Amino acid sequence: MEVFPSLFLIAEDRDVMVADQFEWCGSTGTWCPKFRRQLNDWEISLFQTC
């Protein structure tokens, strides 16, 4: 099962590029996608396996 189509369905902005969702915090960075709603428990577990 692919995770990204599921995440795409709840993405806040479907036209944004992945690079635009990356945020730097000092010398480290993190991927911070924005969603239209909070993730369900089962979605969080899928998201963490990426």
Overview of the molecule:
The longest helix has 8 residues, at 41-48. The chain has two helices and two strands. The chain is an alpha+beta fold. The protein has helices at 4-9, 41-48, and strands at residues 22-25, 28-31. A hairpin with a 2-residue loop joins β1 (22-25) and β2. The mean pLDDT is 78. 28% of the residues lie in helices and 16% in strands. It is globular and about 30 Å long. The protein has one domain (4-48). A two-stranded antiparallel ribbon has the order 1-2.
How would you concisely characterize the structure shown here?
Helix content is 28%, strand content 16%. It is of the alpha+beta class.
Q: Percent of residues in helical segments?
A: 25-40%
Category by helix and strand content: alpha+beta
In angstroms, what is the radius of gyration? 12 Å
Largest sheet: 2 strands, antiparallel
Task: Classify the beta-strand content into a percent band.
Answer: 15-25%
Number of strands: 2
Distance between the termini: 12 Å
**Order of SSEs, N→C?**
HEEH
Strand arrangement within the widest β-sheet reads 1-2
* Shape label: globular
The averaged pLDDT comes out at 78
Number of helices: 2
How many domain regions?
A: 1
Provide key terms for this protein.
alpha+beta, 50 residues, 2 helices
Give a topology summary.
Layout: H1 4-9, E1 22-25, E2 28-31, H2 41-48
Antiparallel strand pairs: 1-2
